[in-house]
Design goal:
six-stranded parallel sheet; Rossmann fold; 19% strand; 13 strands; 390 residues
């Protein structure tokens, strides 16, 4: 990859550094202008909406952006207004950045709407090139009419971003096949597939340990925490010393805390943690949990398993439902097991299987993680001609 000078990176909290992407940008760009935006009501210190200016990997200045807080029940109804505010602020502050630092080399985002803002910024002469790293597809069909409408509107932004962005990269083959099937990406067009990356951490290979289930992510029902709590008493009957560590926050946090109170499984909700803090919690765990709901409206079926990559980096065997395309790699590599959502017997058998050969599963987890080391796979992301900086 050429030596780049500056990049505007836009993403929603808490996904800014999913797959170590922010770390990669800070290591490879002199100036990183990070717009971080709030969507769900994540309980996190400080404002979610902000612009952070990084110079040579270090935070140099931070601007708080206006944040329209709305109740979770009004989230999608107010989305057009919130999106308009986001558009206005990114354009305004990007113009200030251009005046101070010159034309920004790259605008980079993983969201279709914000990627379209990048296209606007290019036409305004504020950025030179745009990159859309496609993470998601939002199936239009949903039990909520409002969410169905919002997703249909979002799909128009997706089409525009895919057609007009200078470089399009997709997170997995399923996303690529979908876009080819509906004609947005011609079948013969070469589109790079770059999944979320992992990091390589020092992990001690240990023998059989107690059952400590770990979860990290946004706490919402589609993430599948209900599958653990519905089987919680059965888990304790089979593994009396088992416990559950939950890292993260989200719209359904209160709901699951109430569920946890009514089970025998000791559960600790750590709330939103960053960096070393959540690694320290997960390092104490035995198995990483990713039991996504197998719902046709669940966006996870087309995404990449960020939490799973984090588990692999820490050498945690994974229990995962067959929602992600990546789940097949986990099972094939014997780095974990695919479980049926809501099936207590299947969950218990999977835990037993892993714990009976724990050392092997742990080694396989680490080996699978190394195949997706972020420093190895991300250079492909920005491979187009940008003038060298003096």
């Amino acid at each position: 990859m050429k030596k780049f000078n500056s990049i505007i990176y836009v993403n929603y909290s808490p996904y800014e550094n999913s797959g170590k992407i922010l770390d990669y940008l800070l290591e490879n760009f002199k100036y990183v202008f990070l717009f971080t935006l709030g969507f769900h009501n994540i309980k996190k210190k400080g404002k979610l909406n902000k612009l952070v200016i990084f110079n040579k990997g270090k935070s140099e200045k931070e601007y708080s952006l206006f944040q329209l807080s709305v109740p979770q029940s009004m989230l999608f109804i107010m989305l057009p207004l919130r999106s308009l505010i986001t558009l206005s602020q990114i354009i305004f502050y990007s113009h200030i950045l251009q005046r101070k630092f010159g034309v920004v080399d790259i605008f980079f985002s993983v969201n279709a709407f914000t990627s379209c803002i990048g296209i606007v910024l290019k036409r305004l002469g504020i950025v030179s090139k745009t990159v859309f790293w496609v993470w998601d597809y939002y199936p239009p069909a949903h039990r909520s009419r409002i969410i169905t409408l919002v997703r249909k509107i979002y799909w128009y932004f997706d089409k525009w971003a895919t057609a007009s962005t200078d470089r399009v990269v997709v997170a997995n083959e399923r996303l690529l096949r979908l876009r080819q099937r509906i004609g947005i990406i011609p079948k013969k067009t070469r589109i790079p597939i770059i999944s979320l990356g992992t990091e390589i951490l020092e992990v001690n290979i240990k023998k059989k340990r107690e059952v400590i289930l770990g979860f990290i992510g946004v706490i919402k029902k589609s993430q599948g925490l209900g599958a653990v709590f519905s089987s919680a008493d059965e888990i304790i009957r089979n593994f009396p010393d088992a416990r559950f560590e939950v890292v993260g926050s989200g719209p359904d946090e209160g709901y699951f805390k109430e569920q946890a109170k009514n089970t025998l499984l000791p559960t600790t909700f750590h709330g939103y943690l960053e960096g070393a803090a959540f690694n320290n919690v997960l390092k104490k765990c035995t198995i990483g949990i990713a039991p996504y709901q197998p719902d046709q409206s669940n966006v996870a079926q087309f995404g990449d398993a960020g939490k799973v990559k984090r588990y692999l980096s820490l050498g945690l065997p994974v229990l995962i439902t067959d929602v992600f395309e990546f789940s097949k790699k986990v099972e094939k590599s014997k780095a974990g097991a695919i479980i049926k959502y809501g099936n207590s017997k299947d969950l218990i058998e999977a835990i037993k299987k892993i714990m009976n050969s724990y050392k092997t599963y742990q080694k396989n987890s680490l080996n699978l993680g190394k195949k997706f080391y972020y420093k190895k796979i991300y250079p492909e992301m920005f491979k187009f001609n940008i003038p060298e900086q003096s």
